[in-house]
């Protein structure tokens, strides 16, 4: 399996097929090289390294996204963190930790986003039909 294929496999496992399908379907001449780049470099080159498990990588990713104020990406990676096995209580602890090191306003925003994501996840689990 080449780096792109391996990256796509991990990207799908972490972010879910629906997100990856949407991102790749929306690729244009402008964004297709970027999609290939993040699939090969981030997902195939970094997320596949043996030094950290996916739970740990999710914790690092959440912290970095909060610190940089990347709220749209934060919502996506909160869902990924749950998919990677973090519990809601563990996510809460990560967010509390970021209040000290990233700042209270950033953690406040992260808690708001997490509450929205958690509510969406509960709704999705309760909704009948196929995923």
Helix content: over 70%
Termini distance?
27 Å
Order of helices and strands: HHHHHHH
Domain count? 2
Can you identify the CATH superfamily of the largest domain?
AhpD-like
**CATH top level assignment of the largest domain:** Mainly Alpha
Based on CA atoms alone, the radius of gyration comes out at: 15 Å
| CATH fold type of the largest domain | AhpD-like
- Total helices: the number is 7
Written overview of the protein:
It is built from 7 helices and no strands. With 131 residues, the protein is mainly α. Helix 4 runs antiparallel to helix 5, helix 5 crosses helix 7 and helix 6 runs antiparallel to helix 7. It is globular.
Gist?
It is an enzyme of class 4 (lyase). The chain is mainly alpha-helical and 131 residues long. It has helices at 3-15, 17-25, 32-46, 54-68, 71-83, 88-101, 104-126.
């Amino acid at each position: 399996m080449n780096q792109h294929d391996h990256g796509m496999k991990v990207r799908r496992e972490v972010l879910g097929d629906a997100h990856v399908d949407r991102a790749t379907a929306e690729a244009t001449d402008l964004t297709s090289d970027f999609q290939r780049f993040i699939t090969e470099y981030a997902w195939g080159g970094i997320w596949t390294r043996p030094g950290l498990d996916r739970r740990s990588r999710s914790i690092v990713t959440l912290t970095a996204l909060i610190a940089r104020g990347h709220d749209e990406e934060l919502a996506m990676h909160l869902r990924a963190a749950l998919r990677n096995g973090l519990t809601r209580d563990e996510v809460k602890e990560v967010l509390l930790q970021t209040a000290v090191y990233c700042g209270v306003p950033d953690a406040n925003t992260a808690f708001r986003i997490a509450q929205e994501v958690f509510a969406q996840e509960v709704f999705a689990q309760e909704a009948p039909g196929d995923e």
